[in-house]
Amino acid sequence: MTESAYSPNSGMPERAFLDANVIRGQQTTDVLLSLADNDVFEPRWTQHVMDEMRRNRPPGLSEKAIDRRIGMMNGAFEDAMTETPPQELQDQMQADPKDKHVLAGAVHSESQVLVTDNLKDFHPPSTGPNAMRVEGLNQFLNRKLDEDPQRVQQGLQKMLDRSRREPKTMSALIDNMAEGQQLRGFAQQLNTVVPPEQRGTSPVLTANQRGSAQYAAFEGVPGPGTPKAPDAAPEARKAGDSKSAERAKGAEQDK
Asked: Which domain holds residue 133?
């Protein structure tokens, strides 16, 4: 059911099925749909996904407000709404039972990637009619940024230009995304691509970069599964201690 594998050199936007958890929040929705509006990708969803997003809307967001957002999304992207996939197809999906409809929607809409922050519940085959690429939100956005950095930045700038509320500059947007959780990985990558005058200044942006204070704090600490280096033999430790003492004594005498 899926189309041929996506190629960034094809000249056609990639078709991406969006799970409810990546369009639940206002900022993630704004970023994704601003990029879609700039032809970075073609969005797809189903009514089931919209209903799930509505049920799990952010605290404090009224039904009227979320319904208005859903209406605007469907109005702006008339081809995004995909018909409900057949139950037979849903039953075939290799996913958690509650998420079979999501994977089936991606396959049925002939999308080339499913974007979700619930990766652990999806296990589609890599080949065959039900094959589907599955990516987390930051992974997807970073790949789009790598494929066409200019188009991604243009889409974000258009979003900022029409915004009536903060953030209104690229640097403020990057800082805002970095200080949150859902778009932090994208913010860190975007900060390395934009011109210097547009870069964010949040300490979070350099937390994983070599040379930063945060990186230095963890440098040399073995990662999970890394064997710990064996302690030096007692004789070697004594010899080392003796040499250190001699050097210290010599330094004192030279003063």
From this structure: 14-145
